[in-house]
Amino acid sequence: PHVAVITNITPNHLDRHPSMADYVRAKSHIVAFQSPDDWAVLNLDNAYTPELAARTPARVLHFSLEQPVKRGAFLRGEELVLRLDDAERVLCPLSAIKLRGIHNVANILAAACAAWAGGVSLEAMRMVASTFAGVAHRLEEVRRWRGILFVNDSIATSPERAIAAVRAYREPLVLLAGGRDKHLSWEQWADVVLSRVRVVVAFGEAVPIIERALRERRAQQGSGANTLLYTVDSLEQAVAKAAQVARPGEVVLLSPGGTSFDAFEDFEARGARFRELVAAL
């Protein structure tokens, strides 16, 4: 493609790829066959970026949450900054972004690089960065019921994506987690959940994996005793349990960490069913 974006590479889809190296190689194909007139937008904070940059003949733009970039976009204090054509411009203040989560700040930085490479004006980029409120199944606010906010993040089909969702909230959380595992580690997920989530409602095929991850990390850390765990068979039962245990001011967050294929055609079908169940409360 003329403009290719790789937002991040972390362990994922290892139920389909024989190894992490094979997964990285598959991801790199999007930039490997570009021309010198094309653009590759890469995450400077990701460990695989030097390898990707070396594989592409395209011009490279970097984005970063952690450090200034020579050419691209980065977060500096409370501002999103573009450094392009030997000039710096402020895209927008951090406070202007409507999307939750630091991962979405990174997404905006990446999108700004891609937009610039495609000839979009700074004014248009600023307008979108400060007004875009998200799309379905990605931290989608479904309903506020009895003072409880229900959020659909069915797109989170890996533990890492679920971690990003959990970290996006300061409110106490009732987390709906489960689905089908993709042969990924749940250790870091368990660490984050035990420190930030009040209640976990686990459902689907991944229940034993989630139970084990929470039990083992709790034993190793000696903490997280206040995080409650309920296990159920289905999403329907999970929503019912969440409605029962959630308190006013809390967030019920569907961010499963597993795929939907144990019960649904895809993550969109799972998210749509979640909406239906919440609407029926």
Describe the structure.
The longest helix is centred in the middle third of the chain and has 16 residues, at 102-117. This protein has a 6-stranded mixed beta sheet, with helices on both faces. A 6-stranded mixed beta sheet has the order 7-8-12-9-10-11, sandwiched between helices. The model has no long low-confidence stretch (mean pLDDT 95). The relative contact order is 0.12. It is globular and about 55 Å long. It is built from 9 helices and 12 strands. The protein has helices spanning 20-32, 49-55, 102-117, 122-131, 159-167, 187-196, 207-221, 235-245, 267-279, and strands spanning 3-6, 39-43, 59-64, 72-76, 79-84, 87-93, 140-145, 148-152, 173-178, 199-203, 228-231, 251-257. It starts with a strand and ends with a helix. Strand 5 and strand 6 form a beta hairpin. The chain is an alpha/beta fold and 281 residues long. It folds into 2 domains: 3-131, UDP-N-acetylmuramoyl-L-alanine:D-glutamate ligase, CATH 3.40.1190; 140-279, Alpha-Beta Complex (Protein-Tyrosine Phosphatase, Chain A), CATH 3.90.190.20.
Strand order of the largest sheet: 1-2-3-4-5-6
The main pleated sheet reads as: 6 strands, mixed
Radius of gyration from CA coordinates? 20 Å
Percent helix, as a range, is 25-40%
> Which structural class is indicated by helix and strand composition?
alpha/beta
Strand content: 15-25%
Q: Ends: how far apart?
A: 46 Å
Point out poorly predicted stretches.
none
CATH topology of the largest domain: Protein-Tyrosine Phosphatase, Chain A
Number of E-type strands: 12
Tell me, rounded to a whole number, the average pLDDT. 95
